Amino acid sequence: MTSALPARRYCIAPMLDWTDRFYRRFARTLTRHAWLYTEMVNTGALLHGDKMRHLRFDEIENPLALQLGGSEPADLARCARFAQDWGYDEVNLNVGCPSERVQSGSFGACLMLEPALVTDCVKAMRDAVSIDVTVKHRIGIDKVESYDFVRDFVGQVADAGCATFIVHARNAILKGLSPKENREIPPLKYDYVYRLKQDFPALEIIVNGGIADHDAGLAHLARVDGVMVGREAYQNPYSLAVVDARYYGDDRPAPTREAAMRALRGFVEAELAAGTPLRFISRHVLGLFQGQHGARNWRRMLSDSKLLKDADWTLVEQALAAVRPNELETAE
């Protein structure tokens, strides 16, 4: 990681169908420093599909990582080069997704059972690019619950030159649980992640899983190098407004909810002019006024299919007007 980039003290997790370029552009109106991650993109989609659709982003989204799914070292190396050429700051290998669809492609969490293959993948990617190559993984697979398992996995992959590990502090259950259940049912074992940092002090260890508020996130930072937050960052996006101050010491005033939305206007209007329906963007901002008077009006107006049909920025203005005047508040 170059000195020009902020530390990975706060990262927003890659979330399928959620962290697309529209969400990431919105998130950047709320935090300058947090690391953003794409949805997982499998190597086949990049090598044989529409690169523009999968790789396109606005440079304001940086620092930004491309998360890849795959298990063929040569294919991952080619895709890592795409990431570097397109201007991503990091390429991340998914070794944590437990879905059966991903397993059928022989990648995701099942790769934890093949650390030698993961090592080959990381080596190939690192040989291909100068940007950081990182790995996101679980602490165990199915009923394999020994700390030694994840310790040995990290140690072997680190020998390939990987210096950053993002650790979801739950086991992955490969059969019988849905991806959603895999995020909730296996117990969290943060102590495993803390032990990894103790055993590998030179590595950058980032904890992921179940982090619901900033107090919890900052408590983790006493033990590891960074936190990765998923659902809370998406469903309560205004929580991002204090990230720069609390995690990075940036004392510039946080934007109000209305200011954050208005900062998105130029982007929205450019996308509308290019033919993007407003609903592609509006679905990501529905939680902006969570907990505030008028939040229901905001959600209703920006999720109503009839109102969204052929809608432009005027609908956003109408939705803002429907929220009670509480935007003099600052972030808490």
Automatic annotation (TrEMBL):
It is an enzyme of class 1 (oxidoreductase). The record marks N94, K180, R183, R296, R299 as: Interacts with tRNA. SUPFAM superfamilies: FMN-linked oxidoreductases (SSF51395). Transmembrane segments: none annotated. Its cofactor is FMN. It catalyses: 5,6-dihydrouridine(20a) in tRNA + NAD(+) = uridine(20a) in tRNA + NADH + H(+); 5,6-dihydrouridine(20) in tRNA + NAD(+) = uridine(20) in tRNA + NADH + H(+); 5,6-dihydrouridine(20a) in tRNA + NADP(+) = uridine(20a) in tRNA + NADPH + H(+); 5,6-dihydrouridine(20) in tRNA + NADP(+) = uridine(20) in tRNA + NADPH + H(+). Residues 12-320 form the DUS-like FMN-binding domain. HAMAP family: DusA_subfam. Belongs to the dus family. This is tRNA-dihydrouridine(20/20a) synthase. It comes from Chitiniphilus shinanonensis.
